[in-house]
Amino acid sequence: xxxDAMTESLNRRLAGESRRxxxxxxxxxxxxxxxxxxxxxxxxxxxxxxxxxINAIRCIANDxxxxxxxxxxxxxxxxxxxxxxxxxxxxxxxxPEAAAGFAASYKLAxxxxxxxxxxxxxxxxxxxxxxGVGASVINLTPEPAxxxxxSQLCDGGKQALFxxxxxxxxxxxxxxxxxxxxEQSLKYLSKQLEIVVKDLKREVPDLSEEYMxxxxxxxxxxxxxxxxxxxxxxxxxxxxxxxxxxxxxxLFLWSWGSPWLPKxxxxxxxxxxxxxxxxNYPIPNEQFRLAWLNLRPYYSTKLFDYLENEAQIxxxxxxxSYLHWDVLDPQDPYTSLANKIMSNFGWGPARRxxxxxxxIVQEFSIDGxxxxxxxxxxQHNGASYVLSDYLxxxxxxxxxxxxxxxxxKNSGEAQSLTRLGAFRELLEARKIKNLR
Length: 436
Hints:
By secondary structure, the chain is an alpha/beta fold. The protein is built from 20 helices and 8 strands. It has 2 domains: 4-209, Rossmann fold (3-Layer(aba) Sandwich), CATH 3.40.50.11890; 213-435, 3-Layer(aba) Sandwich (Rossmann fold). It has helices at residues 4-15, 19-27, 31-46, 51-68, 84-87, 96-105, 109-118, 127-137, 155-168, 183-203, 212-232, 242-247, 249-254, 260-278, 302-310, 333-342, 350-363, 378-381, 384-394, 413-435; strands spanning 74-77, 92-94, 146-150, 172-175, 288-293, 313-318, 368-374, 398-403. The chain is globular and about 70 Å long.
């Protein structure tokens, strides 16, 4: 077996490195770059960027600064690990799959995808995970001190993060989430969380549970504001563009426990309140309201330019923004966090997810449901026919829209626009029929 340094060098050569990647890798680890980013954010604030946008940027920028400069241990997690656990230990989380979407929006995912594929990761795997592994191999991600994954919802996430832990020779922990809902299952998962924390404190220097109360308090404060925001989003017309809301799903998956998340959701709630009070809606002549399942293509805005600007259709709410847990108990953090994990409606029998989608349809006055069928996503694509049959029986129009969230080579954008146009005609025909 090759020594770690030789393996890393070989992987980089196999992956291929552009000058842009070498420069970006260097800049991400320079203190003056992060100081400059802070000044740039201050400048944007003075240029009348919206407060919630500024708070969102500061939330991610703060974690990036701590992770890339090594000011705090960086713990890589999969999307459904409760990151209150990470903040509560005095570390910062890093989600390679969420970062892949972020990179795609800035046209930076191509090299990461190519790096993964050059190391024989199949192109039919989910591009969020391929890009995450590729970025790790060419060291565009920070150095992980440890990795934590949950067994739900996505098997590809576990496999990808395991490979990342191997590349970086760091501890790897799996939370085995029981399939069934019971008191025994809850105790089983709660005990696992306790053991993982104990092991991490032994494996990673400077970790301590002294920050756990603060992380849970931050999460609960953010949850309170977020509930109020969700109520405001039930308004017709919608007070917030769904295209932007799908961009901010990254914070919903990443930042629970961060001191910046309550500030973000408070400012976003205030923004929605102001929009409703002034009537300055982003889509004032809203014709239809959609529920959007799964994620979106992050490298292009064309689908949403069509929906929002041409068709006057709002994405009123997103599946990945649905709040599925209750207030966390600082007196019993591990049981609370175990409950948060197990309450995820995407885990367990399909009827749990169908029930939540039905609630979204009713509560947000939804006219039609679109599922973005991310290439390689077995979790969502495998249930598409069940979902289609269920919504058909409920009388809700449904469109399963094939595409890729990160890899533009798999986009099929022209076909998607055609299908969205046909779906709009279906909604219009249904509306005319109902008016007769």
